[in-house]
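Help wanted!
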Amino acid sequence: MTKQSLVKFWIAPASACLLALGVALACAGDWGEEYGTSNFAPEAFVDSSFSPFFLSNQFYYKIGHEESQDQRFNNSNAAAWTAWLGDAAKPEVGFLLEKASAGSIDSTLLFAEGKLSTPSPAFIGASWLQKKSDKKWQAFLGYLQLAKKAELFALNNIEYSWDYDNKKPKATFDATLFNQQAQKGAASGDVFLRQRYWFQWIRSLFFNGEAAEVVQRFKNYPAAFPKNEMYYRCMAYTAGALRQLKNYTQANYYYSLVYANCNALKTAAHYSFHPQEEKDWNATLALCTNANEKATLWQMLGIFYADEQRSMREIYQLDPKSDKIDLLLARAINKYEQKFSSSSELYVPIDSAKLRGTYAFVTNVAASGNTLHPWIWQMAAGYLNFLDKKYALASSWYEKARKSLPEANALAKAQLRLLQLINFIGRTNLADTKLENTILPDLQWLGSRSPSDLPDFRYADALAWVKNTLARKYQKQKELVKSECFVSKTSFYASRKNCELMKAFLLKPGKTPFEQLCADWSAIKAENIFEYQAVQLAFADSIAPAINLMQQAASAATVQLAGNPFNGRINDCHDCDHAAPQKIKYSKLSFLQKLAEMEDKVKAGQEIYTNALLLGNGFYNMSHYGNARYFYEGKIIGESMSSPFYLDSIFRPMLTDMRLATKYYSLALQNASSDEQRAKCQLLLAKCQRNQWYNDYIYSNEKKKYDEGEMINLRALTRFAELRKYSNTQYYREAIKECGYLAMYVR
Amino acid sequence: MPSARLPQILLIVSCTIFFSCQQRSKSMSFYYWRTQFFMDSSEQQVLRDNQVNKLYIRYFDIDFPKEDTAPAPVGILQWNQQPLTPEVIPVVYIKNRVFQKLNTAGIRALAAHTHDLISQISKAKQVVHNEVQFDCDWTDSTRIAFFHFIETYRGLSQQIISVTIRLHQVKYHDRTGVPPADRGVLMYYNMSDINPGNRNSIYDKIIADNYVKYLSAYPMQLDLALPIFAWGLQVRDGKVVKLLNKMNYLHFETDSNFQPLPNHRFLAKQSCFHGGYYFIAGDEIKTEHVEEKELMEMVDQVNKYSNGRIRDLIFYELDKENLSLYDKAIFGKILDRTR
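Answered by r_m:
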């Protein structure tokens, strides 16, 4: 109903001292998950009310900055009033609490009391108006009348805005009458109503009165009232008042009770909990009436000040069976596992006394077996041993955990199965049939998972680790095809033999189940290899065999090229070619077929100039410099590489080579019949010469990767001298207007 | 209407020519950088003792987080007291990233919002001012946007605009440009990165020597801002994990949970709370501040290259915790030493 703030003023840090140096989670950030690298979901065993405090690079896990202060009680308020008024009231209660204006409540109350002949226009026709003589409804409206007034002081807009009025402390609200009404309502009648009036009274004192008054009022809080959300909301305001009075000892104690007993206020209690000195912290501990309250304080310290290890030890000493330790354990493990690297069989070498302390504590507690849920500790101890590559120890802990893990806990079961799988792979040296048959069902299970199956299940890093680790094992055993199935490497396809072996494996009938899994997991399918080999042949000017292979490349063969691959421009402009109307759209296959047709014509001596020129354009355009890069792009060669530097160095020479284009342009030149034609051939040859200069002096030198803009040595462009011989042609005149290099050369 | 750039440069030249026969009197002021405006008696006393007539008050910051669609003010000043000096100069700190993705229309809107909010804050305490200061560590990539903002703001407000100038902007001014402001404040602090080692991040003589010599060629009249602040750096496993705002060595000397080490460093003997911060046993605390003799050294460095062009002196920042580190007479001594 109203927005809350536990401190009167939202204090933002001053710019001069802003330095956020939080815990940096490896791999987390813009690209990774908020919890970094993880195979250990806290959701498997920690109560969901603690989820904001799971390890995260955000302020609160899955929330970021919590901004629900104006809504966090909406549901519980509506539910409480509905229960009190009777179920039939459900639809209206939420509206009246959250949306109805103060004015409409005023007039409707007068109507209900018979003092007005019509209700507020907002409510005309509302079914609940029939109950206007119902005492409970009248009491509800009477309460609402007061509660709506509280919005004048209790609403506190903390959203950033350029409006200073929102930021200023509220204008003084004369709460005398408000407090009298709240006090009167709190004094007699139904406990449900009285408790709510008490809340209004305390909150009004917090915002409009002195902090000491709030504390005094809360001391007199009637013992007969239930210890429910209303009670803890009052306690939270009292804690805020105590903080203003610099009584941090008592304030923090109250915040810990609020944190433990009121889920809606857990985050609010969290950011308000601030022990100042060791003295007040110890004094707060001394206020606790039992070990459970102390455990809450230690849990808060462990989470809010990132000292999980100390907190776990303290809670364990207080009560080994306390469930408050679980959250700390999850955070400690999530920190420890940042050393896990999915991309390597080894681990990121992070080691510190702190991590060693975590290992010692967790394994000792697991061994003692005296916690509330020993399987959690056994699973954790197993995982820490796995992370330290003590696979045999890990295995025995996992086995113990498996025996007592609750059957109904699907997430924990999945997690344990995953951890056992990676431990088994980790401890097995040889990737032989025995290993394959053992892990096959788990791999099939892992590979078929969808994120919606168990949304909190963290398996992506483990899956990547499995693939990397198996690929490495097979590589070591010289089983290159299986290795390639788990992790694809471009360099594998540099060898023709590898391509053929891979194709044979992928197309082999009667695969074993494990081989089938390898084929299914392989990022490269047989058609990708056919396509890739067709491209290689095309770049070797073996067009007929290229067509044959491209026909086996499934859908890749029909991929359309963006522009007409037979265009030859003075200035390359791929976007212009792609946008230009094209009567014929060429696919990868039909482009090859057209090349073959033209080559046949050249061989037959038909229109050699025209066909050779178009062939030159075709070979030019299918290179990296041309408008038809789609021709070579595919799963093996890669896609969308804007600079030759981004092409894999294995393919760069082939894809940037100008020899074929030069060959056919030269043939066209030999068969040209006019100076216009000769001028054109010379210009197109000059373009090839320019590109070759870039290949030789820029793109073959990795050091120039970030300095591609080097000016070409114009003297290298000897073709321009040839072109100048045709300076009387129309083509030359156009070329000198459009081609900056030529213009510079001439100058 | 503030003076345009060219006449201003002429003015500087003429001031320099007549410097020998017309001694300028310099004034002293302070930055007030907290979000709640309330000065305690020791802070007020410093203003009285040094006849400070002018206070630079941080009104708000402006940030533009990457997930947001527009820049917004952060940490807006709340008045809990009437400012005591006759003159107040609002200061707005603008994060450099604000200017990384603003187009011309966005800059216009930002200038209008900023002008409006500054006016609202001043109006709340009937503060009248004819100058506004912008603090932004602009870079090559944001220079054009920031400079355009300054010009737009001046057009809207018709007020004098001053800006903070970092040492690297002095050295590389031919690359980073000189802002189209009426004057600048040389921020003579925060010279080195926050680091766990022995280098003082607030003042580092070697770095200062390296940069200050370019001051003589800087084409703008400057005030000089000197650091009287202190902070602590919480160091764990060789890395700075937290900046302990306004925690100086005096705060640790008296707490038996900390063992003093050389160079105003301390070791947390056991895990404990102190000053609202939590320390884990083994944490090291490196406290940083600039001592009186270093402040004098800084003034000498600036004097050597300023050609007597420093107008006023501003201390960062007025806060009782900072004042506790210095002798009362220090501010006057530094002012007297500044040429």
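OP: Thanks! One thing I noticed: Chain B touches chain A through 43 residues (CB under 8 Å).
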